[in-house]
Write a structure and sequence with these properties.
The chain is mainly α and about 170 residues long. It has one domain (about 5-145): Orthogonal Bundle (Photosynthetic Reaction Center, subunit C, domain 2). Helices cover about 35% and strands about 0% of the residues. The protein has helices spanning about 5-10, 40-50, 60, 75-90, 105-125, 140-145, and strands spanning about 20, 60-65. The protein is globular, with a radius of gyration of 16 Å. It starts with a helix and ends in a 20-residue tail after the last helix. About 30% of the residues are buried.
Length: about 170
């Protein structure tokens, strides 16, 4: 398992399967994204579903966790809602099927896992070994390239935000 501090660096980087193992109601299919701590939407519904299990490792509370094993379940939801959602400018349904959170049917979810590994490699293999950087702990995240957009920025020019894919 990676040291816990690595999980914090990855906070905006990780997309994983979110399917509560408890047999509770499924969240609505495409509501507006929930604020980080409250409001409606799928993350708020998932928080209700995991009540009492917030501190347990995510892989014991949710199904199909591949990238954030060991991260507390509540922290995983915060990573998704406060990290990925704004970094990519998307709703949960962009990568996940809210009727089956564990599903790997969406290509966006598969790509996100690969990008998470790329991000880890950049942070762990490259940035940590570069001399002369003006930071003790240099790191990149999804927001470094995506800047709130579904596709990474390829230039410094502002682009019009495309319609969200559901």
């Amino acid at each position: 398992m990676r040291p816990m501090k690595s999980h914090f660096v990855l906070a905006g980087l990780l997309l994983v399967g979110l399917a509560a193992t408890a047999g509770s109601a499924q969240p609505p299919s495409a509501p507006a994204p929930a604020p980080a701590r409250g409001g409606g939407g799928p993350v708020a519904e998932l928080r209700k579903q995991i009540a009492g299990k917030e501190k347990q490792p995510s892989e014991t509370v949710f199904k199909n966790i591949q990238s954030l094993k060991g991260v507390p379940a509540e922290q995983l939801l915060s990573i998704m809602d406060s990290g990925f959602r704004p970094a990519l400018g998307v709703k949960c349904s962009f990568c996940h099927d809210p009727q089956n959170w564990a599903s790997d049917d969406k290509d966006e979810k598969k790509v996100a896992r690969q990008m998470m590994q790329m991000n880890r490699d950049i942070n762990d293999k490259y940035l940590k070994t570069m001399k002369g950087l003006d930071s003790e702990k240099p790191a990149v995240s999804c927001a470094t390239c995506h800047r709130g957009e579904q596709k990474p920025a390829l230039s410094m020019e502002k682009t019009e935000k495309p319609a969200e894919k559901h």
